[in-house]
Amino acid sequence: MHNYPSNIPDSASLTDGTGAPWNRAVLEQRVRHLCEALQSRRQPKAPVAILADNSPEWIAVDLATQALGITFIPLPSFFTPAQWMHAIAASGVQAVFCAQASHGAALGFSDVVPCDSTLLLCQRPQGNAQENVQEKARLDLESVQKITFTSGTTSEPKGVCLSSEQQWDVAQALHASLGSLGIKRHLCLLPLPVLLENIAGVYTALLAGATTICPPLAETGLSGASQFDPRVCLDAIQRYEAESIILLPQMLQALVAVAASNDERIRSLKFVAVGGAKTPAALIKAARDKGFPVYEGYGLSECGSVVSLNLPGADLPGSAGKPLPNRLVRIAAGGEIEVGGKGIAHYLGETRKQIEWLPTGDIGRLDAAGFLHISGRKKNILITAFGRNVSPEWPESALIGTGLVAQAVVFGDARPYLVAAIVPMSAQVPPAALHAAVDRVNENLPDYAQIRRWIAVEPFAPVNGLATANGRPRRDAIWQRYQQQIESLYDTRGE
After folding, report:
1. Per-residue pLDDT tens for 22-38?
2. Which domains does the chain show, CATH number per domain?
């Protein structure tokens, strides 16, 4: 039984960049073999997780769980072991796909299930005390195909429950919106557990009958949890003749910094989507000036990733584009963005309820032409000691737009002025250049939004707990890490 679309064109294929691509027939065969392995488990209907690098086999596992109606839990490689264990326990996982038996054993899955796959399928040993700890009735996983765990502030990330239909509805809307571009080669640059790549990248490419290229992440420039080499990435784009890619803002910024104007390595690109966090308009312009066909979007895990997107012919740099055909967007009292339409997800462990309008927690506006503009997070609004409301994303975006600042987080709630924790674009950027960049930014900001003082800090990344999977800074964690230094920026006794 298929719980994923049967109308995937025969031209759709998958490849890791080596050997012959998998055509539709080969993909279906791989899915059948994986289904047989999953059904041979002691608990054939129990949720299954995956902890593995990008590969065609990863995608085949995803589709196999959909074919069987089994709940699938992608475990991000950048989670800590405590976060993996929380996701496994919370969702009742009884087996895991992984690259090595030792990886499964470390998570409590030491029995290897026979499986014709490049990945191992490991289950809990028989009689394990944790077996059947989570009952399906308690978890209410009916129709839940995927649980995507978003980075939490502790070891307990929150699980967002999605059905196959919810995910493919987003992909169908994106395919309809991008169909005129005729994209035939999509290169995966983000980890597949990131919903943005999984749905907006892979599923959309499958529906388009395109070739999805998903080599190990190190081959496209991403190593470890957060190290990104833009030169390796540019070479991969050229080598694989990629026509579409999806980037986080900091990845785009790094690529723009090293790319030449009209760089030969990006000549094949037809569409570059950037999302996961707000992208400075200045960065979009700088990217386009160098030849990147880049378009910003906006999305939420609770909506199956993409909600709105700029497109060729419907583009307004500085905005997050117009809502997709399957989404309704309105602005509630206080400026909060709310999203409507079918397919709003629920959280693992919470009672399901029909949500007509989802409060996003983001502040923004819709202009007369229907473009969505994001101002910042509602919970992030700062109120200075002089009573001025400031979205920190405003000066942060301006700092990042200078080209010398990779990341920035602004503080100043109940304080007389704003300060910032700044990550320089590279270790070679001298302090004097950063000071000059901050001064230039302040010239275009009102006094209450200017950055009076700042400190240079290490990059915000999932591996050090200072950023989410999509690159959004975790403000509370950054505050805790640098509280003493930030507090010292308000010490004016020496002035």
Report:
1. 999 999 999 999 999 99
2. 13-161 (3.40.50.980), 165-377 (3.40.50.12780), 381-488 (3.30.300.30)
